[in-house]
# Entry
Amino acid sequence: MDKTTITSIAQTTGFSISTISRVLNGKAEKYRISPKTVEIIEKEASRCNYSPSLIARGLRMNKTHTIGLVVPSIDNPFFANVASVIVREAKNAGYTIVLMDSAESETGETECVRSLLSHRIDGMIVVPCGVSPDYLEKIDQDNIPVVLVDRYFERTRLPYVSTDNFSGAYEATEHLIRHGHKHIVCLQGNPVATPTKNRVAGYLKALSDHGLEQFATIVGNDFSVQNGYGETKLLLASDNRPSALFALSNTIALGAYKAAREAGLTIPDDLSLVCFDNYMYLDYLEPPVTRVAQPIDEIGVLAIKILLRSMEKRDERSSQLLLPPTLLLAKSVRQL
Amino acid sequence: MDKTTITSIAQTTGFSISTISRVLNGKAEKYRISPKTVEIIEKEASRCNYSPSLIARGLRMNKTHTIGLVVPSIDNPFFANVASVIVREAKNAGYTIVLMDSAESETGETECVRSLLSHRIDGMIVVPCGVSPDYLEKIDQDNIPVVLVDRYFERTRLPYVSTDNFSGAYEATEHLIRHGHKHIVCLQGNPVATPTKNRVAGYLKALSDHGLEQFATIVGNDFSVQNGYGETKLLLASDNRPSALFALSNTIALGAYKAAREAGLTIPDDLSLVCFDNYMYLDYLEPPVTRVAQPIDEIGVLAIKILLRSMEKRDERSSQLLLPPTLLLAKSVRQL
DNA sequence: AAACGTTGCACAAACGTTTGTTCAAAAATA
DNA sequence: TATTTTTGAACAAACGTTTGTGCAACGTTT
# Structure
């Protein structure tokens, strides 16, 4: 049982491969193929379970209907969620996702990107780990559109869609302040990531807007549970314990949570907590955690939309979007 | 700036494309290409940032170095985790993953599979939603190896790798029984999925081995939080409340958790809880939940290993593996 | 009946690779 | 010097598509 191709159908039906191709692509009338012929060919195609070779087509058309997606770690609820949305939206638009995990490393990322280029993807969506947009911009200029998601670069022509991290952090911090907190510590993630920087900035602005600059404290260095745990351990062992923590991710918050519990502290009675990222489980902790939710669905949808538009007409002004987050109130903040 | 191909390099260096190809594939000495020539070509290739077209190569070689992965829902911690491992392992073996989400639907699954076949993937890893292995077996016979993961079929030649769900459930149930529980209700997931069936079987066997058949109660119908929530609500409203719940997934457990809390019940004092699936967050609930952990890493590693082996020599006896789970003790079970 | 428009399809090139075969020139041997 | 061997590389086909063009046969008009 040989693979059935357009050529094999041509042989068994006696028509030429161009005719087969045209029929199977619905261009029968455009090329005046007779209804009889169409029927014969379609019948044969379905009899043989013909499935067109997208790679042959890709080679000929110089278009693979394939989109590359590079995330720092699929095994992270946030990115898994993003990937989920993107896979769905891409499919709706007739595209297929090639998934890469850069493992939070810059070299990992460039490897992924090189591989994607070799696969001749039509465009790519990247959550960058690196600090420079240069090589991605070059790729974009070479006609492989790139869209950044979540993390992005300050000065770049590349389109991106992310959350308005600044205002999200500002709101969260102000929420704490309004509840009487002054000594609020910020547990940050990877300091070079734009989201981190903007969240930290929002946190600082909120403090200074309320004359609390002197309490500003920023600790930590990555988005891991361990980081949240370790930093909180240190904080709680020190002389002047903060009254509230602002964790820049849900993973960091989890670590803080554990450290607080181990110290015998009750949230929110002894320590208040707010974090970034929404996640189902946060509602089931005791107490549920007040958090800044990112509009993941919208982010994914827009990322694909922008990418598709860039793929159509390359001259377009690139969209750089920051979507508004939502503060979800729960019970982890105490009114002092 | 035109795309650089093997042909463009041939033109600028003056050599033929076959020579370029051989040099760039490290077959220089095999074909006695002179060191000088090699150097010239390699220099030019790197100057132009040459990246071979994997789709052209795929067409010629009839091998794309691409593996399809179909999961019911990427946005599910368990499958995200599986995907993560598989992406990593595939990459290590020189393969790239094309990710598909079947959305827990049989038609969604066949669509995904059709698409993958059109993309001419070299093999695929599937977490099947359907009830029949037939069409997948046919694909496997047609020389596109298929490996099942997590869910599988009772009677099939297809290789699979999953958890020994029966013994995991048996152990979990017995754990409850040893703690004095008799009235243990099983909150099941999708009843047609093999894991569900085997877990239920393990649960029943444990009960009957301890002469508790009469307490056997199985409710629910899918792996959602809502299912766990709804069923637990009903249970807790009934006259004879169970003393313990056995949730067949962590999502179901979450729903049960919420319902219990809403009913003002304390776990484990008023109600004991054990569930399937490990997940970071389970340790942070109050109390942490005792659970049956699946060896996800091993599952992913083995799935790729088996797939690669099938791709090499098709005659191989297919491996059907059930890996042992681990009961992780926490604090959600009360000693009666 | 001659000229012409239509209908229905076939031919062939191209996309970027890999690889079996061929072949001239250089080197080695006789 | 004449012959054989070795060296270094080119030629060409093939993978499965799409698409611009060509061209018979048929039908219509004058």
User: Anything to note?
Assistant: Residues 15-19, 22, 31-34, 37, 56, 58-62 of chain B lie near DNA strand D (CB under 10 Å from a C1').
